[in-house]
Design brief:
The protein has 5 helices and 16 strands. With about 270 residues, it is an alpha+beta fold. The protein has 2 domains: about 160 residues, Nucleoside Triphosphate Pyrophosphohydrolase (Alpha-Beta Complex), CATH 3.90.79; about 90 residues, Orthogonal Bundle (Arc Repressor Mutant, subunit A), CATH 1.10.10. It starts with 5 loop residues before the first strand and ends with a strand.
């Protein structure tokens, strides 16, 4: 039974509500790992000038990739479309946009003054990508796109309430990695233990005086979890000792989840809690 507030419009052949509706957008905090300096980074887009007839909104400010939801879209559909169209990122081997290894809804932001143009609520997501797979190119309406280390983002002029969204996404990521191995989504299919160790350090950002997950104990602790296996392969072409390569085993992780698993990050090492 339809609500009494709904009225059928013969011209559009749609039901319409007498109540006012705010605009709705999606935004995505895209995380990538930079192998050169072992830093966790975020993709941001510099907003261009407003088109003729549009109200200016944070021109020249850095912002998260995102956009307005279309009539027949869910928020999940919208954020995926926007990542393909507006992120200014394309795969090296084809012209496809971003297809995240991991994508999850973060939170809804609905402050009435967050957008100077009108009342706009946004559903924010956070995503993990393998940064080396992509090249930055021109998107449909982006003036410029660039990766920034997480610890440098606070120095930028950010549009809307994107500073808060980014901070919330970082906190969610740091909590999530304790009980779900999402860090593997930032790595190649085969990786070394030092690379995995650097992922955890980059995400958790421990204090300098707290040697979290010390390098010597880290491999033993991770292998004990049971969902990382040695591939019998090694890194080739290095002048030093060739590091062993490992891979993530999703099936083993699903089995570990059934008995309960959590990485408890202590002052000196990684401790698993079952």
């Amino acid at each position: 039974m339809l609500f009494r507030s709904m009225k059928y419009n013969e011209k559009t052949q749609m039901y319409e509500s007498k109540y006012w509706h705010p605009a709705l957008t999606t935004d995505a905090v895209i995380f990538g790992f930079d192998k050169d300096d072992s830093s966790l980074q975020i993709l941001l887009i510099k907003r261009g000038k407003a088109k003729k007839g549009e109200i200016p909104a944070f021109e020249g400010y850095w912002a998260l990739p995102g956009g307005f939801i279309q009539k027949d879209e869910s928020t999940d559909d919208c954020v995926k479309r926007e990542l393909m169209e507006e992120s200014s990122m394309k795969l090296f081997d084809n012209d496809k946009g971003i297809e995240p290894e991991f994508l999850e809804q973060l939170k809804t932001y609905s402050g009435k003054n967050r957008d100077p143009r009108e009342y706009v609520a946004t559903v924010a997501y956070y995503a993990l990508v393998k940064k080396d797979k992509y090249a930055i190119k021109g998107g449909d309406d982006a003036a410029e796109a660039r990766w920034f280390p997480v610890d440098k983002v606070s120095e930028l002029q950010l549009a809307f309430d994107h500073a808060q969204i980014i901070q919330d996404a970082i906190e969610r990521l740091r909590e999530k990695i304790h009980f779900e191995p999402i860090g593997f989504n930032l790595l190649d299919d085969m990786f070394t233990m030092p690379q995995l160790h650097k992922i955890y350090l980059a995400i958790l950002n421990p204090p300098e005086n707290a040697p979290i997950c010390d390098r010597r104990n880290f491999p033993k602790k991770m292998l004990k979890l049971g969902y990382i296996k040695e591939t019998q392969k090694k890194v080739q072409g290095t002048p030093y000792k060739q590091p062993k390569l490992f891979s993530f085993v999703p099936e083993a992780y699903e089995a570990a989840k059934k008995i309960g698993m959590r990485l408890e990050i202590g002052r000196a090492s990684c401790r698993e809690r079952v």
